[in-house]
Amino acid sequence: MARANLCKNSITQYTAIETLKILGKHTEDMVEKLRERRDYSYNRLKKLERISCNYLDGAFYHDCSRKHLPLGR
Predict the structure, then answer these.
(1) Contact predicate 60/40, CB 8 Å
(2) CA-wise closest residue to 45 among 59, 61, 34
(3) How far apart are CA 46 and CA 28, in angstroms?
(4) Residue of 26, 35, 71 lying closest to 55 (CA atoms)
(5) Which pLDDT belongs to residue 43?
(6) For residues 50 and 67, is the Cβ–Cβ distance under 8 A?
(7) 55 contact partners, CB below 8 Å, separation of at least 6
(8) How many whole angstroms from its chain centre is CA 10?
(9) How far is CA 71 from CA 16, 50, 68, in A?
(10) Which sequence spans correspond to the domains of the chain?
(11) Rounded distance, CA 6 to CA 36, Å?
(12) How far is it, in rounded angstroms, from Cα 64 to Cα 72?
């Protein structure tokens, strides 16, 4: 039962794959906007002294953590 909660069923996965094969202009525009937003927020996060953030090329989210800096900084 745990697997059902962790993964989409195979029909959903195959449907997603087929959908991605027929990308239209709308989808391409949407993906480009998401990339721009990801890159903008990543560049802002990089500038924060106490945040460490990894750039994830294939994702539209960030993998960030708090840096361990000495107290008093």
Answers:
(1) no
(2) 61
(3) 27
(4) 35
(5) 93
(6) yes
(7) 42
(8) 22
(9) 48, 11, 9
(10) 24-73
(11) 29
(12) 22
DSSP per-residue string spanning the chain: -HHHHHS--HHHHHHHHHHHHT--HHHHHHHHHHHHHHHHHHHHHHT-TTEEEE--TT-SS-EEEE--PPTT-
pTM: 0.58
CB neighbourhood size of 42 (10 A) = 16
Q: Which two tokens stand for residue 56?
A: 């994830």
Residues of the chain with pLDDT under 70: 1-8, 69-73
What pLDDT shows up at residue 13?
80
Locus of tokens 């059902």: 4
